[in-house]
Amino acid sequence: MTLSPDETIMFMIWGIPVNATIFYTWIVMAVLTGASMLITRNLRPDVPPNRWRTALEVIVQGIQSQIEEISQGPSRHLLYFAGTLFLFVAVSNLLLVVPGFEPPTSSLSTTTALALSVLVAVPLFGITSRGLGGYFKTYLEPSFIMLPFNIISEFSRGISLAIRLYGNIMSGAVIAAILLTVAPFFFPVVMDLLGLLTGMIQAYIFAILATVYISSATKPANPSTTQKDNS
C-alpha cells in the first residue's frame, strides 16, 4: 500500500516522470473545465436554463452567499478564488468513488500548494484593498512588538491548512485500505460514503478559512476612526 500518490509514477514525458498526484490533478482540472464548458456553451438570455445549468447556478450562488456572510462586503473578488478552491477540493474528493482514482488532495504536496496559494492570496488581496502601507501596518498592531508574532501567525495558518486537509483525506484512505483486507465487500462501501462526506466538509472548511483570512486582510483598519473622520 502506498501512502501517497507521489510514490506512483504513471508515465514519462521527455524523460520527466509524472506521478499519480500530477496525473490525477490534471484529471480533476479536465473534469472541471470540460463540465463548465458543456454547461455554459448555450449561456444566452434566449435559451432557457437546463437542469445542469440550474445546478451550477445554485452552487455558485451558494458559495457567493457564504462569502458575503463572512466578508460583509462585495464578494466578486473572493468568489473566483475561494470558489475555485472549494470546487477543486470537492471534485477531487468526489472522484474517490471512481475505481482506481486517487484524490490528489491525499498528497501533502497538493495540500501544501493549496495552502501556499492562500498564503500568497492573503497579502495580495490585502495590498489591493488597503494599499501597501496600510496592509503591512497590520503586522505592527496593536504594537510593533507583535511583528514577529504576527508573521509567525501568518505562516502557521498555511501550515495548519495543509496538514488539516492532508490528514483528513489521507486518514480516510488508509482506514479504507486496512478494512479492505478485513472485509473486502462491506467496509469499503461504508468508508467511501464517509470519505465523500468528510471530503465535502473539508472542501467547505478549507474555502471558508481562506475566505476568513482574506476578509480579515481586506477589512478597514479602524472603522470607528473612519466614521469620526467622516463626521
From TrEMBL:
<dbReference type="GO" id="GO:0046933">
    <property type="term" value="F:proton-transporting ATP synthase activity, rotational mechanism"/>
</dbReference>
<dbReference type="GO" id="GO:0045259">
    <property type="term" value="C:proton-transporting ATP synthase complex"/>
</dbReference>
<keyword id="KW-0375">Hydrogen ion transport</keyword>
<dbReference type="InterPro" id="IPR035908">
    <property type="entry name" value="F0_ATP_A_sf"/>
</dbReference>
<dbReference type="InterPro" id="IPR023011">
    <property type="entry name" value="ATP_synth_F0_asu_AS"/>
</dbReference>
<feature type="transmembrane region" description="Helical">
    <location>
        <begin position="12"/>
        <end position="35"/>
    </location>
</feature>
<keyword id="KW-0138">CF(0)</keyword>
<keyword id="KW-0472">Membrane</keyword>
<dbReference type="GO" id="GO:0042777">
    <property type="term" value="P:proton motive force-driven plasma membrane ATP synthesis"/>
</dbReference>
<dbReference type="InterPro" id="IPR017692">
    <property type="entry name" value="Alt_ATP_synth_F0_Asu"/>
</dbReference>
<keyword id="KW-0066">ATP synthesis</keyword>
<protein>
    <recommendedName>
        <fullName>ATP synthase subunit a</fullName>
    </recommendedName>
</protein>
<keyword id="KW-0813">Transport</keyword>
<keyword id="KW-0406">Ion transport</keyword>
<dbReference type="InterPro" id="IPR000568">
    <property type="entry name" value="ATP_synth_F0_asu"/>
</dbReference>
<feature type="transmembrane region" description="Helical">
    <location>
        <begin position="107"/>
        <end position="127"/>
    </location>
</feature>
<feature type="transmembrane region" description="Helical">
    <location>
        <begin position="78"/>
        <end position="101"/>
    </location>
</feature>
<feature type="transmembrane region" description="Helical">
    <location>
        <begin position="165"/>
        <end position="187"/>
    </location>
</feature>
<dbReference type="GO" id="GO:0005886">
    <property type="term" value="C:plasma membrane"/>
</dbReference>
<comment type="similarity">
    <text>Belongs to the ATPase A chain family.</text>
</comment>
<keyword id="KW-0812">Transmembrane</keyword>
<keyword id="KW-1003">Cell membrane</keyword>
<dbReference type="InterPro" id="IPR045082">
    <property type="entry name" value="ATP_syn_F0_a_bact/chloroplast"/>
</dbReference>
<dbReference type="Pfam" id="PF00119">
    <property type="entry name" value="ATP-synt_A"/>
</dbReference>
<keyword id="KW-1133">Transmembrane helix</keyword>
<feature type="transmembrane region" description="Helical">
    <location>
        <begin position="193"/>
        <end position="214"/>
    </location>
</feature>
<comment type="function">
    <text>Key component of the proton channel; it plays a direct role in the translocation of protons across the membrane.</text>
</comment>
